[in-house]
């Protein structure tokens, strides 16, 4: 992600609005209209503000123990109408439970806990993760 890890600092993603614009630009450049946005861990800094600002552009949202969930209020989450699958590993004792506690305010959300998996539940238990993800995707219109 731009501005994170070993990538050079990026002024555009230094603000919440900059991260929303960056993700919007990426989706437009890829020609993606109404995608399902899957957001593990650090990508929450991009995905959550995008969801709150432009959630109607998404067909679905799948947060996987993302960071930044506590930066928003229950009221902000309650305004989102995007179908959401909250995914986390039961061994993710910090971000998984924190994300669930905050994201449970999203209307009509579903929750899938991956047993025996940690923070990167998609790596720890890929079959269980994909089963939950595919089940959610099949429900979308």
Automatic annotation (TrEMBL):
Its main location: cytoplasm. The keyword Nucleotide-binding does not apply. Keywords: Cytoplasm. It is found in: Cytoplasm. InterPro entries: AB_hydrolase_fold (IPR029058). One of its GO terms (cellular component) is cytoplasm. This is ABHEA protein. It comes from Halcyon senegalensis. The gene is Abhd14a.
């Amino acid at each position: 992600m731009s501005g994170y890890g070993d990538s050079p600092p990026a002024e555009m993603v230094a603000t919440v609005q900059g991260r929303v614009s960056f993700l919007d630009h990426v989706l437009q450049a890829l020609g993606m209209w109404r995608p399902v946005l899957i957001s593990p861990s650090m990508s929450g800094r991009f995905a959550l503000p995008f969801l709150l600002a432009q959630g109607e552009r998404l067909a679905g949202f799948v947060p996987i123990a993302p960071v930044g969930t506590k930066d928003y209020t229950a009221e902000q989450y309650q305004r989102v109408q995007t179908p959401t699958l909250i995914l986390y590993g039961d061994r993710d004792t910090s971000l998984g439970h924190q994300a669930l506690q905050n994201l449970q305010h999203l209307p009509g959300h579903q929750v899938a806990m991956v047993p025996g998996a940690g923070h990167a539940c998609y790596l720890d238990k890929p079959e269980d993760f994909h089963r939950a993800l595919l089940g959610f995707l099949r429900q979308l219109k």
